[in-house]
Amino acid sequence: MSHPDHEIDSNPSANPHFESVLSQALASPSRRMVLRGGLGLAGLAVLPGCATLMGASGGQMASSLGFSSLDKSLLDDVVLPPGYRYTVLHATGDSLDSKLPAYSNTGAEADDWSRRIGDHHDALDIYFIDAQGRYTETDTGRAVLVVNHESSADAHLMHPKGQTSNGVSGKKFTQFGDWDLGARPELEVLKEINHHGVSVVEVVRGPQGWTMKSDSPLNRRITAQTPARIAGPRAHINEIRAQMVTRWETSGSMARGTLNNCGHGKTPWGTYLACEENWAFYFQMAGGGAALAPKETAARRRYGVASAPPAAGQTRAISQGWHTVSATDDRFARWNLAAVGANAERDFRNEANTFGYNVEIDPLSSSSTPVKRVSMGRMAHEGAVCSLPKAGQPLAFYMGCDARNEYIYKFVSTAVWDPKDIGGGIAVGDKYLNEGKLYAARFDADGRGQWIELNIKDPRIANYAAFKFENQGEIYTQTRIAADAVGATKMDRPEWAAVNPKNGEVYVTLTNNSAANRTPGRVDAANPRAYMDVDGKKGAGNPNGHIIRFREDGDTATASAFRWDIFLFGAEEDAGDANLSGLSAKNSFSSPDGLWFSPTTGICWIQTDDGAMTDETHCMMLAALPGQVGDGAKVTAKNRMLVNGVEQTGTQETFVGATLGDARLRRFLIGPKGSEITGVTEAPGGRALFVNIQHPGEESKSVTDLQSQWPGNKGYGRPGRPRSATIVITRTDGGVIGV
Ligand code: FEO
Ligand code: CA
Ligand code: CA
Predict the structure, then answer these.
(1) How many whole angstroms separate alpha carbon 290 and alpha carbon 288?
(2) What is the pTM of this model?
(3) Could you tell me the distance, in angstroms and rounded to a whole number, from the CA of residue 678 to the centre of ligand 2?
């Protein structure tokens, strides 16, 4: 049984195996120096089963994990291995300023969420500050922590009785809307609009570890109302702005706010990219207005945006119902996409065109205006992860579009990397993220893949029958359709990407896919499985997901082709043919989502957002020690699934990485009830790990019938309703995490 952890001290160095000796060595700076200078790397490398590698960052990289893998957990707590502890850094509702009252945790707040930590903590990153107040990659003990507040699901926990739909308060509704039509209370909606977005807070390391600094001038909330600049390539910016014209900003050069920020990117120059994922579900068509052109209807449908008013007699609508507060107040009217005005300058028919981007934020400048980087395409952006920067070469950003059967993309900058740009903020973003090329990925059956440029000059796009592209500007805003036209590969929901600092290989989580999309007759080499949950309780298709990885030809950002294999397949340990990575009861997992490599240890941290194995264990974070593309074998997936009550079988050849086994893949953390684990980074040196716990108690039936009470049940804040939070994990002996 695993320990419910943060109070239990137990030092893994009691373990007699060599890996714990190495762990101790890595844990101590002085001993690390001894290893480097004395025994030496060569000495370590000859010991059986152990090698210590030098990472791209110059740090040592472990080849063994120094903690014991957790058993599954259904506890309402964050569970860690013996020898580890956590503290809560901040949770939903915490105030940024001492003048605001402490969070009630009863929904009693006024409209003050633009100065409180938002809800649904998702991606995060940390930016260190030097003595002059500038960005640095060195641990100075002072930093800003940036957190996405996704808030894709319910917000009822921030209202006294829950949300109000059609006059009924306390109503439980399903994710992504499903509102009964009817006016919603203004205060509820303002609180919901403002708990979305991003928080930027100063954090400092003191005797109690890392804590948030109240009243810092760096503390900032960016919400769904914060003005943002629209940026794109010089040659096409007017084509782009023409699509962004609204009653609020008739030139189309500014937009308001950011929504549903999920994964993220950290740029090499020290800014944050907040990625807009399920923004499409916040809009509605209401109040009549002119009929949409067929092309506009096609575009909206491809993105899941409201394209027609609710049909006569229809009482439910997919949106948050924010538009229902007022048709004249722009804060609410903007969520109605109907063409109710004389032209686009008189209404908000184009408002949804201003969402779906990577939004660049300078964490060290609380007065800087966020920028929507339209050149990186419009999609359900999950992450934007940079290639290993090489001076004098372009940068590539790898991006997943998270919806079933969507694509993987990359943006390659025209500008070549200059390390002198570190710390240059948004102006440097304008240099690298406006001019460049956008590509979609095609994964071929032979283990190779192609990057296909999305360019109006490609006849497949120029002559695409389903959507008539007028110009390159439309390719940036209707990116999914351009990728359809060139035959990109439909993936099993691309989530986060991560780059292995050791070799530059790119990993992408493919979280899962449904039975409607994957059957034994509808698989391909890169999405090869179609099967059923082993005990029949939780889904079919590819219910447990997988992690694909690829290596660019020539290890360059500008490569037009790559080689791929599948790093890991999620599965229950008793899943038979579906367990293609040989997972055991100690490291089985499902629905990989967050993904990140520690530059200190080289550990690949895998986080889950699962609903398919949650009858056995809550969502988790695992540590993996990967090899490289091609280190495994060609295998045949044997698929078996009931399709409309009839058993179908089939086989699909694919490429799977070397089996990691219990030694190289271990469960490190398991979350509280109803939570997803997402967002991870470390303080330089790897002695503190920052992780987000999102939506504990997601399946609460009401504000009084709660599934989880974390973190209040562990002494953080006022007890009662569950809250999303950022936690800081350390080793009780102060050592490096994971090794
Ligand atoms: Fe917001 Fe794709 O997870
Ligand atoms: Ca996610
Ligand atoms: Ca099951």
Answers:
(1) 7
(2) 0.92
(3) 7
Tokens of 589: 């997992």
d(CA 231, CA 245): 14
Omega of the bond leading into 711 within 30 degrees of 0 (cis) = yes
The first and second tokens of residue 290, run together, are 């002119």
Contacts of 16 (CB under 8 A, 6+ apart): none
307 CA to centre of ligand 2 in angstroms: 26
pLDDT higher than 90, residue 334 = yes
| Rounded distance between C-alpha atoms, residue 637 and residue 9, angstroms | 43
Q: Which residue has the tokens 């807070």?
A: 201
Q: How far is CA 127 from the centre of its chain?
A: 18
The residue to which tokens 């538009």 are assigned: 323
Query: What is the 8-class DSSP label of residue 39?
Result: I
Atom of ligand 1 minimally distant from the CA of 262 = 1
Helix (H, G, I), strand (E, B) or coil at 50: coil
Helix or strand holding residue 41 (H, E): helix 40-45
User: What pLDDT score was predicted for residue 179?
Assistant: 77
* Predicted pLDDT at 22: 34
Which atom of ligand 1 is the closest one to the Cα of 277? 1
pLDDT range class, residue 692, cuts 50, 70, 90: very high
DSSP 226: S
693 near 705, Cβ under 8 Å? no
Compute the distance from residue 590 Cα to the ligand 1 centre, in Å: 15
> Tell me, what DSSP letter sits at residue 524?
B
Q: What is the DSSP string of 537-580?
A: SS-EEBTT-EEEEEEEGGG-TT-SEEEEEEEEE-B-TT-GGG-T
432-472, pLDDT tens digit by residue?
999 999 999 999 999 999 999 999 999 999 999 999 999 99
Among protein residues, the one with the nearest Cα to ligand 1's atom 3 is 262
Question: Does residue 625 surpass a pLDDT of 90?
Answer: yes
For the CA of 493, the nearest atom of ligand 1: 2
Amino acid at 484: D
The closest-lying atom of ligand 1 relative to the alpha carbon of residue 150 is 1
**Domain boundaries in the chain?**
19-117+378-731
CA proximity to 173, closest of 184, 160, 163, 182: 163
Rounded to an integer, what distance in angstroms lies between the CA atom of residue 170 and that of residue 155?
Answer: 11
Among all chains, which residue has been given the structure tokens 């709660």? 706
Q: Which two tokens stand for residue 739?
A: 């090794």
* Exposure b/e, 255-273, CB count within 10 A at least 16 = b: bbbbbbbbbbbbbbbbbbb
State the amino acid at position 297 in one-letter form: T
Q: Which residues' Cβ are closer than 6 Å to ligand 1?
A: 150, 262, 277, 382, 402, 495, 593
E strand or H helix at 451: strand 448-453
